[in-house]
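User: structure tokens for Alpha-1,4 glucan phosphorylase, please.
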Amino acid sequence: MRGVDTDVASITKSFVNHVQTSLARQASNLDDLGAYQAAALSVRDNLILNWNETQLTYTRKAPKRAYYLSLEFLMGRTLDNALLNLGLKDQYKDGVQKLGFSIEDLLDKERDAALGNGGLGRLAACYLDSSASQELPVWGYGLRYKYGIFQQLISPEGNQLEAPDPWLDNQNPWELPRLDVSYEVRFYGQAERLNDGTPRASWTGGQEVLAVAYDVMIPGCYTKTTNNLRLWESKPKRGFDLNSFNAGNYEGAVESSNSAAAITSVLYPNDHTTFGKELRLKQQYFWTAASLADILRRFRNLGKPITEIPDYIAIQLNDTHPTLAIPELMRILIDEEDLDWDKAWNIVNNTVFYTNHTVLPEALEKWPVPLMEHVLPRHMQIIYDINLFFLQAVEKKFPGDRDRLGRMSLIEEGFPKQVRMAHLACIGSKKVNGVAELHSDLVKTTILKDFVEFEGISKFGNVTNGITPRRWLDQCNPELSDLISKTLKVEKSVWLKNLDKLEEILPFAEDARFRKEWAAIKQRNKERLAHYVQTTLGLTINTHAMFDVQIKRLHEYKRQTLNILGVIHRYLTLKAMSPEARKKVNHRVVFFAGKAAPAYYIAKLTIRLIVNVARILNADPDTKEYLTVYFLPDYSVSVAEVLIPASDISQHISTAGTEASGTSNMKFCLNGGLLVGTVDGANIEIAESVGESNVFFFGHLTPDVEDLRYQHLYHPIPIEEKCPALANVLNKISEGMFGDGGVYEPLLNTIRQIDHYLITDDFDSYIAALAMVDEAYLDKTEWIKKSIRTVAKMGKFSSDRAILEYAESYWNLEAVSIAK
Ligand SMILES: *Cc1c(COP(=O)(O)O)cnc(C)c1O
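Assistant: Done. Predicted tokens:
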């Protein structure tokens, strides 16, 4: 197959061609948006050829393939990433410059693909990048939401407002519609067992919806391998329902077509909470059913016996959202392939893998049995059958242990009864993993403890999350990436795919010239961030202060409240100082960004408090030189790419045992920002890697949490006694220092009363940790050494390491190289 020519002259020619033909515009009269589109289409030509060759090779070689099922893919922008992975950035930079454009301006025209809420969706995106970069035959499957995560606006009072995210409005050059790849998906209707001596049933009637494929090409880094992310869009099976028209029911006919399209219309904006909404259940089944139908069609083309499915297919469930893959595969094998129950179950059990992402009770998915019976009657029958056989086996191993049966059942008793999706995902999978060492231990000792006792420990493992160093170092921090290459005298194509090589920069921590370059890059990244804030918000930032960043979804367990209360404490301390004394204080700029779920009242109140604290502090002539606060609206992957390289410290301060892993902690440390955190999630492994002397830990440990919560409930200590500094801060808020104090009472009361997230227990040690940060920052040389040492030891946190663990220890998958 002939490749695309990639010299600068060919690039400008291809660019102009796309302007004239694909866009039907004139090159002499083109704006930046048009130029971005032409550049994207031109880059896409390269991807398409590589994609074709990759898929041909997979078909010809028929390797085992893995499928990553994720309801969210938080991809961000594509053009820069594609240019870097293809090694064409410099050529395109020159090419568009010759035509009178700046590549940076064009890159800036692209809208983020934001089909995800936060960490879980971004993880899926990193894993696709790593799969392609490590030449693994992995496809992603997800939904093509018409609207991604909402755009966040902040009202003058400081309230979060949500606006829709019409990300497809300007056309999307990165997807290929595959109108010929479509499947019918059924909802509702009747399921009747055949009772013919087989476990078969027939499922008929109800609503049928069409799933249509859109393919997104996923280029690997410096390799031809270009994998696929297939996203499904829902469409009415027929444009309209003729019977309804004939019956004179025009409105009903239109409504039925509306409801089919509604399935993929919007991403649910909840992170770490479940809602039990019918449309969400329909999204989950629609996506799972279409993906499985597609996977099995590909398998059938191989002409292999159905029992060999586990030799050719591994299906990874990203959290419990795609758990219906388990009863759906059973349904296909039994009702359509006529397999007996045990054979079918054995196939499922050797094909499916489950990653747990949380132990928080409010995040564990449960579906009401009546809703399941209504929407998916056949699947509910299958789940009951799975449960029956499963509980019989448990009873055999633990005779007479009725409590255990109740705890382990797939069905939770109550009104209504509910299906416990984590239990179903666990017993239907070959292996189960958590996403950091501590989290995986908690999974085994808390929510799945009974399952470990029943099935044995070897089924349960850990794969610590990772991040792609392509986007999260090379793309977002090009100067640092260049400095590393220059210093190591190693090509990016080598060290970006073997991140342990970073360790070789360790000796340069002792090299004064290297440190100077390192510090200068950090300074320029701060100026880049300041420029972004200036142009988007019109605010001027002091780039000579320490940059302290906490950016992540707003959630009580992540404790942005602890941070803002700490800021107020610092402010009150500054106010009480003499002007002379203040001059000795470390200047600090505190950044927040993050979205709250639209119905999450306390989280939204936290945003309001942050915005109003910023308003007061940034205008106070006594202190604004020493302490300012910014809440940057509409946090996204692209905003993260500007903030992260500019940070001196970042905060990952969840209540111990609540953050499964965290991945932004890894992004900051890979960019030379130091970590302030609790002993939680991947913070622990980061500290093990970079050395405890290079992180700032504080707070109670996981084993203490249960006792502390018990104390809060049954032996509460007045907050004035327990933590006077905090009591003072809360009182100042109540008294109206940041606007109408009454507004914040519901938020303050969560702390004064139950304090489930242990703000009162951790406040003093948090303040002490920040004092250590100030102390350490005084010695600039030592600080830069810490920064260098941190980056040097971050190799483990490449998502390449993580995806190779899945490939080797879970999926039994081998790399497939694509001929040059
Ligand atoms: C990495 C990332 C996250 C995850 O952040 P945590 O701090 O680990 O929760 C969320 N949102 C975006 C846009 C990210 O890039």
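User: Anything notable?

Assistant: The radius of gyration is 27 Å.
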